[in-house]
Amino acid sequence: MNKNHKEIPIWEKSKKMKKFTVGEMFSGPGGIGLALNKTKHLTEYVNYSFEHSWASDYDENTAKTYQENIFKKNTKAKYFCQDVKTLDIQSLPNVDGFLYGFPCNDFSLVGKSQGEKGKFGGLYKYGIEFIQKSNPLFILAENVSGIKSSNEGETFKKIISELNNAGKYGYDLSVHLYKFEEYGVPQRRHRYIIVGTRGDLNLSFKIPKPRNKQKSSREALEIPPIKKDSFNHEIPVHSKTVTARLSKIKPGENAWNAKLPKELRLNVKGAKLSQIYKRLIADRPSYTITGSGGGGTHVYHWEEDRALTNREKARLQTFPDHFIFHGGKESVRNQVGMAVPVKGAEIILKALLKTFSNNEYESIEPSFGYFKNKTL
To answer: Rounded to the nearest 5°, which phi and psi values hold at 133?
Structure first.
């Protein structure tokens, strides 16, 4: 063989493979989906990108948001709006890449953590079933930081083991707790993301190096200003008591550590969540945007005596203003809060394309570790 000859990887041998087909399970409103549409990587040989084949979620408003924003120009892609428990996984189209942010409710640090035994905890298994039948080139799974401590860590180890050995070839995994504020997302949002490349490809995904400069809440919400008639931008109207309470809370304080007069204090026993009526600090990233919760959990402006609008929260999740969320205010709140930040997903997906093109990039060691597949 000519020693100057370079073996062409299997994904470069056909022009059809320059676009990695992808399927998304538990797609949410489209944080990862939008990032997939935007992410490209040009090399000497191939212009790498992604192309949706299908996506699924059970909520009608979420499905409408996804389809009208993500599949708008892709009429061939299929969307399955149904409970994953009724989804015919064996009939789903095979894809090059499989992504899923399996529901995190039972692994969250906020509220009662039930882990794998909870209503949503075992749903990751449906993704395993698809991987077993499809053997995609790569996989990506996302969940909250609380998954590490669920069931004293045994649940997370089990999920990693099952992904590590899934399918015909297994997967080489990189498991890392991403702190998205370190990647230019204006929000302290920490999520475990597992990226796996199929065991026979001999590829190793590396964790992209964080950026030096963090983006503040003020930068996100004011540059450029949000137009008053923007979608999902209804200004909240609070009671006089809530408005008065907020007026006494300084940036960075919450209802428990602010110096409130007796009539404005909360009469709550038991756990006292630090995010209750907590105000943002203008020159720092936001605290974590959540998808649900009662009064006092809506994220509060550093200066104006009010909660943020859903559009402002979407800005902190790095969704563009033209991205329209469908449904009522609470449904939209849930969609925004459950999404993966678009900019954060883009950085990870760009690194994945560079991995497949054998291009080096600045990286760090994964916080949880590498898991080499041992099935071959």
So the answer is: -90, -25
Q: Report the distance separating Cα 121 and Cα 106, nearest Å.
A: 6
In the structure encoding, which two tokens stand for residue 34, read together? 């939008």
Note the pLDDT tens digit of each residue in 166-215: 999 999 999 999 999 999 999 999 999 999 999 999 999 999 999 889 99
**Structural domains in the chain plus CATH codes:** 10-214+340-371 (3.40.50.150)
Q: Where are the beta strands (DSSP E) in the chain?
A: 19-25, 40-42, 47-57, 78-81, 97-100, 138-144, 171-179, 190-198, 207-208, 363-364, 369-371
Beta-strand relationship, 19-25 and 369-371: unpaired
pTM: 0.90
What distance in Å separates the CA atoms of residue 224 and residue 302, rounded to the nearest whole number?
18
Please give the Cα distance from 150 to 354 (Å, whole number): 33
Among residues 46, 37, 55, which one has the least CA distance to residue 18?
A: 46
- Per the CB < 8 A criterion, the answer to whether 27 and 53 are in contact is no
69 close to 76: Cβ distance less than 8 angstroms: no
CA angle 139, 128, 15 (to 5 degrees): 35
Q: State the catalytic residue, choosing from 104, 185, 221, 316.
A: 104
Tell me, yes or no, if 104 is annotated catalytic. yes
For the stretch 290-332, pLDDT in tens is 998 888 999 999 999 999 999 999 999 999 999 999 999 999 9
d(CA 30, CA 351): 19
The encoded tokens of residue 62 equal 């979420």
Per-residue pLDDT of 113-145, as tens digits, reads 444 454 444 789 999 999 999 999 999 999 988
Q: Output the CA–CA distances (angstroms, integers) from residue 297 to 272, 275, 281, 285, 289, in the order listed.
A: 12, 6, 16, 17, 9
